[in-house]
Amino acid sequence: MSKKIAVIDGNSLMHRAFHAVQTPMNAKDGTPTNAVFGFLSMLCKFIEIASPDAVICAFDAGKPTHRIEALAQYKAQRPPMDEDLRVQFPVIEELLAAMAVPVVKVPGWEGDDILGTIAARDEALGYETLLVTGDKDAYQLASELTRIVTTKKGITDVTINGPEEVLERYGVTPAQFIDYLGLMGDSSDNIPGVPGIGPKTATQLLQSYGSIEGVYEHLDELKGKRRENLENNREGAFLSREIATIVRDLDFELDLESASFPAYDAADIEEAFGKYQLASPMARVLALIDAKPEAPKAKIEVAERLSGEAAEREVERAIAAGELIGVAFVDPEQVSLFDEGATAAFATAEACVLAESDEALALFARIVREGAFAALDVKADVHRVYPADTALGALVTDDEVLTMNGFDLGLAGYVLNSSVSAYTYDSLMEAMNGASLPEDDGDADRAALRATAARLLKGELEEALDCDGTLAAYRDIDLPLVAVLTVMERTGAALDVPRLQQLGCTAQAELDELTSQIYDLAGESFNLSSPKQLAHILFEVLELPPVKKNQRGYSTDAKVLGELSAKHPLPGLMLTYREFAKIKATYIDQLPNMRGIDGRVHTQFNETVTTTGRLSSSDPNLQNIPVRTEFGRKIRECFVGLNPGELFLSADYSQIELRLLAHLSGDEHLVAAFNSGADLHASTAARVFGVPLEAVTPEMRSRAKAVNFGIVYGQQAFGLSQSLEIPMAEAREMIDRYFEVYPGVRTYLDQTVADAKEAGFAETMFGRKRHIPELRSSNGQQRAFGERTAMNHPMQGSAADIIKMAMNEVQRRLAAGGFAAKLMIQVHDELDFSVPPDEVEALGALVKEIMENVVALKVPLTVDVSWGATWAEAH
User: Fold this and answer.
1) H or E element at residue 182
2) What tens digit of pLDDT does each residue of 385-433 get?
3) Residue 352 and residue 450: Cα distance in Å, rounded?
4) Cα dihedral 336, 338, 341, 343 sign
5) What's the rounded Cα separation, in Å, for the pair 136 and 445?
6) For a surface tag, which of 50, 166, 300, 690 has the fewest beta carbons within 10 Å of its beta carbon?
């Protein structure tokens, strides 16, 4: 009976996978799993292509004794195996056992020899063999029944090679391949070969003389250095061939006739792969037996379900008893004119209340006013009774929202790990309990399960935050901000629409003029939005030198256009065109259409999007309006006070991250510079360039400013040289000099990175952690990114915490002081208000006092406060 057996060179595939999959991946216990992931990806891809009847995996076992005895330096130059790779071998063996894949290891022999032996046994049985390896030595084993499978690129692009492919690729037959290796040697394995004989020469010699013996029999036909090298290295050639020859008669037990694949149970796969959180490979392995992963389900007991009057009484009872109420809303999947609205569940200690539409909203409004509750996304749920549009009636007041007692489950998950892409009931249940929610039976059942889970998760998340040391960051900073942001989103921002429309007309006229100029310079019209057509104009029509190439051809990105603008005016005009076109499309054209019924723009502020702790803004993104360009400032001129006559007040932290660097590092010179009130960048320039303060030139100050801010973001010499357009050596010298004059900064940053590497995370002054798996990556670029992140997080994350703390206190004082002014927008280190003229002085003083004193540092926090009729004038 014919049979196809696949034999995997485990060491070869694990090494290739480890270096190919550089994304940091870890199991729950911290064990790296990137090589395991890559190995399984290659294995599954191969199985999907080849459909073998059996799969066997071979691994090296100890040092290759017989080869080292013959050649002492064999593989001696290889560095020790990376520890992150070494610890993954037991993991892959465990997973292969779950897949019922026999693993063969023979002490003192390499995986190649096991592959060769199995191939020989298969051929004796008339079986076809597929040897899966990245080692070219295996090509000597190719035959009519044995073929070699290698990865051509990455981890999933594979090729299958028989005798014809070996001959086509190397110009020698599989039988000649050991002679080929013997002649040219193998530097990766320290096999000497013959000096001066490379692949091309080895092929020529074997094509002419057939074997190494043939070469030496005809040595007199050769001339010059080639003959001399062969004469002087005869012993090395034969020894190298011997070392490269794969042994095909090892003694080990393996029943090839009964071996089969797949022969595993889904339950074994789910248990083994689930242990290492390998969901994607698990799904692919299960698909090979037409199974799907069965996610473990949490055991959640939903209490007695109540509705109507009984429901109202239960909510009253729970509020009076001070119980936590789990809240969940489920919207109908298909919206129609006849929908009765969302289904809501309110889980108490004794029952689960179910309600719909207006009844559900009325019950929830009461819970917001008087009770304690937990929900996945508190802000989103509160907006059901407090819409983010002032034209829509609210069932609760600003003060009731600001004083509500809600626990935000998603936000708690975010504080525990800000790198997760989404915070859902299933992801939180998986993180806390290792199981997802049970299957539901419709909207009401889904709401009941979620509300019940909310009560359970609140306690578990609170305990996890406490154990993690991040409870204070959640409880004192992020959670109070939920209410502040909810009120801000309802407040919204006002637009001067006629001015925006006029700006649109001006922008279109400028775009038309730019288009005309570009066409004139190009000598023809083309699609300005097409990178391909622009590349044709730049590099073929105008014959400008290409700067870099990507998968789609020559790049025309902003950096390339910037470089080319020094050689021709068209690239510079394209940069201006792109800026105008993007701002016009994103803001001028869209903002009027994004207003609510009340005519205001109601952006959404997100607390769980960035990894740093900073807020983000969406629909529309008001944090992304350019502020350093004239066109961007004109957009800000269209934002005005909420009511006629009101002013726009802006309060902005000055150099907060640099001040935090001074505080956290404690560098005496940096602290002194800030405390003196002098111009920091000029002071830095004076110290770095070794000149008196009065001798600092604008260029010196500009360069010092770049270094100051670059240090905060972990910028190295290459980045600084690019930003300042100076040689690398000069940039490196500036950075070295910076650390000489501020030695405490160097010490602090080095210690911060060292601590982060040991702990796996960096943290802010207030205990907010950012987990950085890249710090343990074997890839240098990934690791360097992790180090920059570790340096930056204490400053950027602490700045984010401070502005959040200021927002919480400002909102509290606005309400307590009876101000009519409203907090509308937050942009990184800036707070923006709409304020009546008679309050502007008092509000400016209040906000400045709060922001500058919300935390005590070794250096003063400085806030710039200004106001005007528009957002632009307030700067």
Assistant:
1) helix 177-184
2) 999 999 999 999 999 999 999 999 999 999 999 988 789 998 888 888 7
3) 11
4) negative
5) 59
6) 690
Instruction: Look up tokens 């489920």; give the residue.
Output: 330
DSSP 8-class letter at 389: S
Candidates 657, 670, 751; CA nearest to 712 is 657
**Residue 172 and residue 180 in contact, taking contact as beta carbons nearer than 8 Å:** yes
More confident position, 517 or 30 = 517
Q: Omega before 569 cis (within 30°)?
A: no
pLDDT of residue 469: 93
Domain spans in the chain, listed from the N-terminal domain onward: 4-163+246-287, 305-491, 494-599, 604-667+742-875
The fold of 305-491 is: Nucleotidyltransferase; domain 5 (3.30.420)
Instruction: Compute the average pLDDT of residues 18-25.
Output: 76
Residue 148: what residue type?
Answer: I
Structure tokens at 623: 């944090």
What confidence score (pLDDT) does residue 155 get? Answer: 47
Identify residue 210 by its one-letter amino acid code. Answer: G
Task: Determine how many CB atoms are found less than 10 A away from the CB of residue 812.
Answer: 15
Fold of 4-163+246-287: Rossmann fold (3.40.50)
**Euclidean distance between CA atoms 240 and 235, whole angstroms:** 8
Q: Which two tokens stand for residue 42?
A: 């290659």
DSSP codes of every residue in 66-93: HHHHH-TTTTTTSPPPPHHHHTTHHHHH
Amino acid at 477: I
SS3 state at 61:
coil
Residue 308 and residue 256: Cα distance in Å, rounded?
Answer: 69
pLDDT digit string, tens, across residues 335-377: 544 445 789 999 999 999 999 999 999 999 999 999 999 999 9
78 pLDDT more than 70: no
Cα–Cα nearest to 13, from 108, 187, 150? 150
Q: Which two tokens stand for residue 304?
A: 């007695």
CATH code of the domain made up of 494-599: 1.20.1060.10
Class in CATH terms, 604-667+742-875: alpha beta
Q: Give 249-287 pLDDT, tens digit per residue.
A: 999 999 999 999 999 999 899 889 988 888 888 889 999
Closest CA to 52 of 5, 100, 116, 86: 5
Nearest to 735 by CA among 715, 751, 749, 753: 715
In three-state secondary structure terms, 344 is strand
Spatial CA neighbour of 592 closest among 684, 513, 496: 496
114-131 pLDDT, tens digit each: 999 999 999 999 999 999
Q: How far apart are CA 189 and CA 553, in angstroms?
A: 38
Residue 653 DSSP SS3? strand
Element spanning 863, H or E? strand 863-868
Which pTM was predicted? Answer: 0.74
Averaged pLDDT of the chain: 88
pLDDT reading at 492 higher than 70: yes
- Cβ atoms < 10 Å from Cβ of 163: 16
| Cβ atoms 633, 587 nearer than 8 A | no
